[in-house]
């Protein structure tokens, strides 16, 4: 009797890149907090500091947690597919809730201060990201976690789901960079060109944001780092091929 095959170990380079991405992501969150604490007075809900809740929540939710959610299928390579799906979905839920808090904070702050809403490119991109993120999660839940979706539907939708996930993540990073630049110009104005300490720190934060997005994207695009099919997934794939092409595994 053949013994069950041992799970394939993760490539060593993948582990290094994932660890590097986490260092970058944590550095982004820490530097965002430092920027808000040192140069923007900190964070509070019932004061003028309410606005600062917005950038922190958006960075944590739509950048760091969303990036980690995309990496789930690279990190957890040999766990049950259902477990990996649930973790992937839960991280997106946490990201959505945190981003929603950030969105409420900025709209509430604008209402209290009498500022206009949704006039800048950053705000337009931000709303687009938030709506796409929510729709993407609903579609993912409907196709991959809800038991009613057939295997054929999941197989046909999966490429679109993967592409949109990466596109929304990159759009999130770009929107964060737009917001960072907008915040600096509003406060510093012409002083921004004088290499003010806040401007220098925020520029470094922008580079870290771009680096985190680039590393996550690189990990996702390495075909040889994709999660290997488990035995039950291979069986389902062969059954689907049999039904759609009219052949059988024994005929190959």
From TrEMBL:
GO terms for molecular function: metal ion binding; oxidoreductase activity. GO terms for cellular component: chromaffin granule membrane; lysosomal membrane. Signal peptide: none annotated. This is Transmembrane ascorbate-dependent reductase CYB561. SMART domains: B561. InterPro entries: CYB561/CYBRD1-like, Cyt_b561/ferric_Rdtase_TM. Its main location: membrane. Keywords: Cytoplasmic vesicle, Electron transport, Heme, Iron, Membrane, Metal-binding, Translocase, Transmembrane, Transmembrane helix, Transport. The lineage of its organism: Eukaryota, Metazoa, Chordata, Craniata, Vertebrata. Its cofactor is heme b. Transmembrane reductase that uses ascorbate as an electron donor in the cytoplasm and transfers electrons across membranes to reduce monodehydro-L-ascorbate radical in the lumen of secretory vesicles. It is therefore involved the regeneration and homeostasis within secretory vesicles of ascorbate which in turn provides reducing equivalents needed to support the activity of intravesicular enzymes. It is found in: Cytoplasmic vesicle, Secretory vesicle, Chromaffin granule membrane.
């Amino acid at each position: 009797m053949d013994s069950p095959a041992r799970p394939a170990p993760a490539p060593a380079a993948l582990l290094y890149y994932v660890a590097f991405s986490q260092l970058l992501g944590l550095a982004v969150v820490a530097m965002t907090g430092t920027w808000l604490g040192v140069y923007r007075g900190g964070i509070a809900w019932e004061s003028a500091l309410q606005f600062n809740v917005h950038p922190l929540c958006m960075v944590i939710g739509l950048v760091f947690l969303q990036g980690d959610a995309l990496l789930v299928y690279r990190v957890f390579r040999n766990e049950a597919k259902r477990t990996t799906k649930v973790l992937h979905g839960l991280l997106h839920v946490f990201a959505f809730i945190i981003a929603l808090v950030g969105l409420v904070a900025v709209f509430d702050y604008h209402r209290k201060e009498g500022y206009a809403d949704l006039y800048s490119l950053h705000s337009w991109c931000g709303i687009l990201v938030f709506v796409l993120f929510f729709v993407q999660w609903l579609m993912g839940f409907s196709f991959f976690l809800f038991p009613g979706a057939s295997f054929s539907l999941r197989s046909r939708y999966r490429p679109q789901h993967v592409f949109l996930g990466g596109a929304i993540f990159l759009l999130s990073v770009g929107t964060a960079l737009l917001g960072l630049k907008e915040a600096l110009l509003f406060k510093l104005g012409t002083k921004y060109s004088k290499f003010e300490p806040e401007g220098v720190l925020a520029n470094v934060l922008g580079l870290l944001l771009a680096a985190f997005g680039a590393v996550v994207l690189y990990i996702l695009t390495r075909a040889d780092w994709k999660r290997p099919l488990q035995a039950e997934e291979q069986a389902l794939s062969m059954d689907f091929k049999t039904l759609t092409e009219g052949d059988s595994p024994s005929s190959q």
